[in-house]
Amino acid sequence: MIDNYNDFKKFLNNLNTRPRLLIHACCAPCSSHTLLLLKDYFDISVYFSNDNIYPSEEFYKRLEEIKDFTKKIDNNINVIFDSYNPNDYDNIILGYENLGERSYRCYKCYELRLEKTAKKALELNYDYFTTTLSISPYKVEKWINEIGYKLEEKYNIKYLYSNFKKDEGYKHSIELSKEYSLYRQDYCGCKYSLEERISHDRAKEENKS
User: Fold this and answer.
1) 42 lies in a domain?
2) pLDDT tens column, 54-112
3) Residue 103 Cα to chain centre, angstroms
4) Which end of the chain is flanked by fewer CB atoms within 10 Å, N or C?
5) CA torsion 71→43→36→81, rounded to 10°?
6) Which residue range(s) make up the domain with 94?
7) What is the CATH number of the domain that holds 155?
8) In terms of pTM, does the model score above 0.85?
9) Does 8 map to a domain?
């Protein structure tokens, strides 16, 4: 089990085959650095499964953006996507709706998306699964990896350690977003993070007046 970024980099450099990797992606900006980092080591497919995203227009906007981006960087990267099922998200965070960012509400959200990714990887005979989520400074990579390894045991499908904010990964994703003119959303995706962002913006405006 890999539990730190240095060992993860050693693992990549010691690969002598190209395993098949299914990587969950939340959006094109978070995918940018991650895909460029991994595409020389793995045969990658992107899996867009994000029932947390609100509203539905945002879901489809992010999906189309990631399809366009992968074509620009590597035609061999396939994008697989789930239908939009917001009830799955509502059910898994039931009772935790009022908790804030980086709370147990987020833990359950990671769990939902990673479990769907593990199941899809198993179904389609991938060697590994992982997620781009850990590139964000607002996401708790310790939780992401904890969930990933639990799912590895549950489904007998290898989980690839994830902490893509390392080596200035987040900064690089911002630079790539500018280079490729990517749509870069200003909230996590769920309706609660949207409400929190709106409240924060409103408070800033009130403080100015």
Assistant:
1) yes
2) 999 999 999 999 999 999 999 999 999 999 999 999 999 999 999 988 899 999 999 99
3) 17
4) C
5) 50
6) 19-208
7) 3.40.50.620
8) yes
9) no
